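Re: weekly structure request thread

Next one in the queue (259 aa):
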Amino acid sequence: MTSNQRMPVIFTGHGSPLNIITENPAREGWKRIAEQLEKPKCIIAVSSHWKTEGFTGVRTAPKNRQVFDLYGYPKELYEITYEPPGDPAMAKEVLQCLGKEASEDNSWGIDPSIWSVLMNMYPEADVPVVMVSVNTSATNSQLCEIGRKLKGLRDQGAMILASGNIVHNLRVVNWQNPAGEAWADLFDQELTDAIRNGDFEVPLRPMFLPYAAKAIPTGEHYAPLVVALGAVDPKEMVTVFNEFRQYGSVSMTSYLWEV
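Done, posted below.
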């Protein structure tokens, strides 16, 4: 990729916080993807952990405060420092693109759904990050439209990174299971097959898939995928990576779209 080309869009599963402090395939996958890509000027990060109701929040501050919305994990996790700079100029571009549905909001910072990924992709924390929230009141059509409005910023050197999980059901999680339950595997595979084929109608209407209600009991971890889909064209080349499930009911499957 050369500097005058459109930057990619990534949706990634971030999974358990334990992924942050253990060697695992997800971390290796994030490192490999970063090695393959041109370093972006900025990252627009859509976070499943930053939930706002009725609007999309955009962090405009020049610094990103590290957030630890995690509880009960080993001490070493809380000792990690990852605070890339913000990008106020790009944040203003994001606000202009989204219009009245977005608001400046510096109450949140860079949370584990984003920094757990970026600490592996860009360990020097030298790529500016603009944090964007998930509007929990938005429909999938509205979330997709948010992505569509952000699409043009890819031509200004901004990578779009959306972090969540396709399958995310902590009610039935099994910490002793290193893989996925059959229902989680089936849902993940059918959705991934549709994305590979450029059929975005399926992920935009996931409730028609088997086990959808079990895979997506709440929408905040699925929503970043929908935003990402809006920011790409179905004809763009998609690379599937980190294609596995863990703890029975959490999917790590991730997608990279590039021209």
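The domain at 9-258 is CATH 3.40.830.10 (Protocatechuate 4,5-dioxygenase; Chain B). The longest strand covers residues 42-52.
Next request, please.
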